[in-house]
Amino acid sequence: MLILSLDTSTASCSVALHRDGLLLGCYELFTERTSAAMLTTLIQDVVQHAGYELAQVDAVAIAKGPGSYTGLRIAVSTAKGLCFALDKPLLAVNTLAGMSEQVRAYYPDTHTLCPMIDARRMEVYCAFYNTNGQEIQPTSAQIIDENSFNTWLSQGPVVFFGDGAAKCQAVLGKQPNAIFPEATIIPSARTIGQLATAAFAEGQFEDLATFEPFYLKDFMTTQPKKLLV
């Protein structure tokens, strides 16, 4: 089972190749606005340098969101193009689930994991997972204030991580059960590929014609100001 995984949920861009769940290669860029320009190059490089050809890939997996509207759209359109061209199935993994997979081995089962992606102002996209990787509260958009997550924090330690955790730490940092790792956890195709391996084994394929990214919220734009003549 050879799975190519893509993650452009945020400003970073990553591509990974897994064989039977084993990571063969992963290329990641952490500069702004890299997804559109570099994604196809990274795909070609990781497959070629691992000693394979694109035609040998058994499935393409993507981080489906939540995240950047533009980033998600780029990854999905690229993945769909590959799947149609190669006649391969599409797998989709929640971006927050992939982030949780990065840290869950480092915390005991008494902890709850809360991956966060920065949204607008004091808002984050988040979900809750246990240290077995099971989702225990679905993905939602939350406005952060001093009362946020009181129910969870009253039950035990909660680990907040991801680029949305900084604004949460400024408000909840004094809570004894609120834990904020020093390292920033960035969405990565490494763990998307791991979770996609299990999804492939269970036949959890997406409908190529109808699949859309998990935007969570509608895309917001601002109206341009009229020029005074």
Automatic annotation (TrEMBL):
Keywords: Transferase
Signal peptide: none
Keyword Transferase: yes
Any one GO CC term of the record: cytosol
InterPro entries: ATPase_NBD, Gcp-like_dom, T6A_TsaB
Single GO MF annotation: transferase activity
CDD domains for this protein: ASKHA_NBD_TsaB
GO biological process: tRNA threonylcarbamoyladenosine modification
PANTHER family: TRNA N6-ADENOSINE THREONYLCARBAMOYLTRANSFERASE, TRNA THREONYLCARBAMOYLADENOSINE BIOSYNTHESIS PROTEIN TSAB
Name of the protein described by the UniProt record: tRNA (Adenosine(37)-N6)-threonylcarbamoyltransferase complex dimerization subunit type 1 TsaB
Gene this protein is translated from: tsaB
